[in-house]
């Protein structure tokens, strides 16, 4: 038996090689012995090997049968033997590094651990939600967040960062030095310059700086590492940010992350961010008069002037009109399409509204980011309380609407179209990968057959098959590479679509917890993994929003509304269900944001403030209540002419398609979905179910929304009406 540095070799008496073990640890000493007589068939060759980490490994031939840690974390012995003493057969005798002799014993037969079978029971959302809440409570109890601010301030004092990006763009980028692709370099796109200063106030063992840029944008120095940084070290780094791929970009935000380790081994992380200038991605063009997608923001902060110069000053320099009301921008780096991608921003002359319109979803994200971020920054610098310092409370409306508010509209169909294209590409990638694996197995099988053939057998036929198979492998591999390129472009398009929805929802008139939950689900940039696509990873979160949380259909704690709760336990991913839930999520958000007042106080306000209506309105409401009653009771009465009511507008492109500027009433009534919960006086009419006669009741206040008992809706009924009917 021979013990090497990383292997263990066994030879017989004639020097014949029996086996060799490759060890994944550093051995220190060993001892081999035979259990039984070596000439008997049942004899066992046992070897005990001690590792440098004080672990004992027992092998039978080349198979490990036991492993144990040396007691009390004592140093590993330098020698080991087996001895039989009185009352202790098979004792293990070890010699320590200082000469101490110890006698030990392994003990009884080892317990064979078996992995328990997986619990493949159907998922219960109620049980899962309960366990998740228990886990969150345990985490909150275990983590002490009281000292977080002090620790963060201490880390910021140890490493002081200053990161900024110039607002002006430059055209003197060295494309050869930075290895810019030829198809990008030929467009001569502008670049931006940045500056990073850091000063070290304490000794550091390691320091690493990483720049996170959007997809398609690169930094001249992505990562920098420093070792054994002494206190007092300061450095200034000049950076170049440039477009390296012709992709749609969803954000101008660049983050620098400084992670360092102190000499005592304590890790800390500091993060700062800055925004790239919009002139890197847009150029001024003629504004559009009409577009398919129109969004409206109302600047509600008195510290922000709702003019184009406030948000897009770099594009208005040198123009004849000092304060234009319309600005047209064209994307400089489109994707595959060669057509111009334009976006128009219009500031109202006599109000605080700003309209953004375009035919392309990909053009909105960076513009909305600039409007929202600039508004919050200017409002925060005016001396108001910082939004991130205030803790969200249950039932509190979104505090962002105190600065700016978006009209309740989401371009659902264009967003879903990007999701459909991305999902279809993922399916094509999986099919192409399976086909390549099949061809690769054929290739290996043909090579094995070629090696097994005798020399005198003809090899021309199998050689031709190998060449044909190889050509198919190359062809299908090129197809997969091309599909991967399409996937990257479509992932960037989907990033823009998701970011568009996120910026709109952030400024909607909703509860703040709704905005926070939806914002955490719609995170960007999106990611695809080898075994799991973005749609498959998003499906559990979207499905959970339909059963728990602020967007659930029913507010009761019962199992009502969980009819589809166990559908997610299916083996295969149901994309149709995911798409349906995704669209329903946006529809619920638009409905809640379109409500004129919070749902919690809406019922009481309606009950306390009856509205005076005319005789014609009373008659129309009476007819409408009879129609509702007949539909609920299933009575085939005389057809009644329904009251002429404005149809509910769904969240589609047609919801905002007009060329005229909205006034305040248009924004409240025309955009998105709205359902009135008012009261009025009129003569109610009921149908008698027992006698089949009609009974007229006296004039009483009636709500336009009625249930089976002709009463005002409860909170649960109100939320159920705003949700989805399963």
Question: Could you describe the 3D structure shown?
Answer:
With 726 residues, the chain is an alpha+beta fold. The chain has five domains: 2-104, Lipocalin; 148-279, Immunoglobulin-like (Sandwich), CATH 2.60.40; 281-406, TATA-Binding Protein, CATH 3.30.310; 412-594, no CATH class; 599-722, no CATH class. The strands form seven sheets. It has a six-stranded antiparallel beta sheet with strand order 19-21-22-23-20-24, with helices on one face.
Spans of 5+ residues with little confidence (pLDDT < 50)?
554-570, 598-711, 717-726
Cα gyration radius (Å): 36 Å
Number of domains: 5
Record the strand order, biggest sheet.
19-21-22-23-20-24
| Shape verdict | extended
Strand content: 25-35%
Largest sheet: 6 strands, antiparallel
- Average predicted local confidence, pLDDT: 76
Number of DSSP strands?
Answer: 26
Question: Could you say which structural class the secondary elements and strand pairing correspond to?
Answer: alpha+beta
What is the end-to-end distance?
Answer: 72 Å
Task: Write a compact overview of the structure shown.
The protein is of the alpha+beta class and 726 residues long. The protein has 15 helices and 26 strands.
């Amino acid at each position: 038996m021979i013990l090497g540095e990383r292997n263990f070799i066994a030879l017989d008496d004639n020097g014949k090689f029996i086996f060799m073990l490759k060890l994944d640890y550093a051995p220190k000493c060993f001892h081999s012995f035979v259990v039984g007589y070596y000439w008997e068939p049942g004899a066992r060759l046992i070897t005990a090997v001690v590792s440098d980490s004080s672990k004992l490994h027992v092998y039978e031939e080349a198979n490990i049968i036991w492993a144990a840690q040396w007691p009390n974390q004592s140093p590993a012995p330098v020698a080991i033997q087996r001895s039989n003493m009185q009352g202790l057969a098979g004792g293990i005798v070890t010699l320590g590094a200082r000469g101490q002799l110890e006698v030990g014993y392994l003990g009884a037969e080892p317990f064979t651990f078996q992995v328990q079978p997986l619990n493949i029971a159907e998922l219960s959302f109620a049980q899962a939600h309960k366990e998740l809440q228990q886990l969150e409570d345990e985490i909150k109890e275990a983590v002490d967040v009281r000292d977080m601010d002090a620790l963060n301030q201490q880390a910021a004092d140890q490493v002081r960062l200053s990161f900024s990006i110039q607002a002006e763009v430059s055209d003197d980028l060295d494309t050869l030095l930075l290895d810019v692709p030829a198809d990008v370099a030929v467009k001569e796109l502008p670049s931006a310059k940045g500056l990073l200063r850091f000063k070290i106030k304490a000794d550091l063992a390691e320091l690493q700086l990483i720049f996170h840029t959007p997809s398609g944008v690169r930094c001249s120095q992505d990562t920098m590492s420093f070792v054994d940084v002494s206190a007092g070290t300061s450095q200034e780094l000049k950076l170049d940010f440039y477009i390296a791929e012709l992709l749609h970009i969803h954000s101008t935000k660049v983050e620098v992350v400084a992670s360092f380790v102190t000499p005592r081994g304590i890790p800390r992380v500091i993060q700062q961010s800055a925004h790239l200038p919009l002139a890197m991605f847009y150029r001024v063009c003629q504004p559009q008069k009409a577009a398919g997608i129109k969004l409206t923001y109302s600047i509600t902060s008195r510290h922000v002037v709702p003019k184009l110069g406030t948000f897009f000053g770099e594009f208005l320099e040198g123009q004849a009109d000092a304060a234009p009301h319309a600005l047209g921008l064209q994307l400089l780096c489109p994707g595959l399409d060669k057509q111009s991608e334009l976006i128009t921003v219009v500031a109202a002359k006599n109000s605080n509204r700003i309209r953004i319109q375009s035919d392309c979803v990909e053009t909105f994200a960076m513009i909305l980011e600039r409007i929202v971020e600039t508004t919050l920054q200017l409002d925060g610098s005016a001396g108001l309380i910082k939004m991130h310092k205030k803790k969200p409370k249950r039932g509190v409306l979104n505090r962002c609407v105190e600065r700016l508010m978006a009209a309740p509209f989401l371009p659902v169909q264009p967003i879903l179209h990007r999701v459909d294209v991305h999902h279809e590409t993922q399916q094509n990638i999986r099919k192409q990968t399976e086909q390549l694996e099949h061809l690769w197995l054929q290739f290996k099988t043909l090579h094995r057959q070629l090696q097994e053939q005798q020399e005198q057998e003809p090899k021309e036929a199998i050689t031709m098959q190998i060449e044909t198979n190889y050509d198919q492998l190359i062809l299908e591999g090129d197809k997969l590479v091309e599909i991967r390129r399409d996937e990257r472009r479509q992932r960037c398009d989907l990033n823009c679509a998701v970011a568009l929805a996120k910026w709109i929802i952030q400024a909607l008139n909703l509860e703040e917890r709704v905005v926070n939950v939806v914002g955490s689900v719609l995170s960007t940039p999106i990611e695809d993994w080898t075994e799991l696509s973005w749609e498959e990873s998003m499906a559990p979160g979207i499905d959970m929003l339909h059963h728990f949380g602020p967007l659930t259909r029913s507010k009761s704690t019962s199992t009502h509304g969980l009819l589809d709760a166990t559908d997610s336990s299916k083996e295969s991913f149901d994309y149709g269900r995911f798409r349906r839930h995704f669209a329903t999520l946006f529809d619920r958000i638009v409905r809640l944001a379109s409500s004129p007042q919070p749902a919690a106080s809406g019922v009481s306000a309606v009950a306390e403030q009856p509205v005076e209506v005319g005789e014609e309105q009373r008659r129309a409401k009476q007819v409408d209540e009879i129609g509702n009653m007949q539909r609920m009771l299933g009575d085939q009465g005389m057809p009644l002419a329904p009251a002429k009511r404005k149809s509910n507008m769904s969240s589609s492109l047609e919801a905002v398609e007009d060329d005229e500027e909205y006034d305040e009433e248009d924004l409240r009534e025309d955009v998105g979905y709205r359902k009135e919960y008012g009261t009025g006086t009129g003569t109610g009419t009921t149908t008698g179910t027992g006698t089949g006669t009609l009974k007229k009741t006296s004039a009483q206040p009636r709500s336009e929304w009625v249930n089976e008992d002709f009463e005002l809706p409860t909170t649960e009924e109100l939320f159920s009406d705003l949700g989805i009917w399963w």
